[in-house]
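#dry-run=false #mode=assembly
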Amino acid sequence: MTAAIAALMVVAVVSGYDHRRRRADGAVRWWPWLIGVIEDRAVQGWDDLPTVTVGVCLHGPPRVRRAARAALRIQPGVDALSLIGALRDRVASARGDRLFGTVAAVAVRAASPDRPLARLRARELTITADERACGMTAAAGVPPRWLLLAPLAPVVGGQLSGLTAWLAAGAAVSSWWFAARWLRPRTCVRVFATEPIGRPR
Amino acid sequence: MSSDRGDDLAARLRPHLRQRFDVPDAVWWSPPHRSGGARHPIGDAASRADQLVQVVERLALLVELGDGLVAAVTEVCERGRGRVVAELDEVCEALASGQATADAFQAWARRARCEHVGVLAADIRLCASSDALAAALWRNAGVLRRAARDRRMRELRRRMHLLWLLAAAVCAGSVVLVLQ
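#status=ok
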């Protein structure tokens, strides 16, 4: 009995550390870096902005790299602006909309990419910092979440039996599972589509 | 798209690559990501605040790139979805019927009962140039983003407190059961 409770406490502490580490090292932290590389190459005049973007994405972080390679594989003969649209559809996030939407808007209007990209990078840095702060706050809820499994201790120790034991175990595990969903930081939804949707919606 | 332009793009992208991307069986090929090609960008849980931030940022970007506010609103309405874009659609219709831009935004603020849109409408009324308008839109987008972040953090902290209370109650009950 004591061993069961002690084991639960150890699991709670260890899972708290693990969860905090995973949240803090989330996959979004490389996004400002990606925009910085695109900005750097565009300002240095490597190529036009859509081509530079596709080129950087081809060597970018895993999700964007997979999307860029798949877009090129499926549409090998299209121009870079169309590839940007395909990339935007494949990355399919508000973050992707911001980057690829900005690139497409700048390219279509033949505007200078300096200010929009610098502004976008600064904004992404802020958003990433905000998301990490939210992730850290949510990670602080992991120990109480694991403590919701405490009713398993009397079940394991034999204080509960039969239907009561099953009910207690089921309630503990389901509350543990729902608490994880409840604490998950809400992600920003996409508002914009690549192609005009037209009215009425 | 002609094959010449495709070849031209391939030639220009080649310095970016370690392998050839125009070979069908190239080793870097990977299947599309499972979230690719989402047909419904708006989920049910979308909050209006998050959508408003994205809409205002897009308006600011388009105005900064040289579009007029009316053209920017029209483009946002054509490409966007969701509650805020539906509200902006009414602004678009009001603009098409000849209403002044600031008045249309003010009417939107009244309909939506949103003080942020009211501030945005007041800023639009004060702006004399497109640069000033773009700056005002970016400033409003920043304020909206901070408000959305604060709201999200407040909600998370509230849930955290509730979870600690629940965990304490569950643990106390379990300990009582074990000690009996």
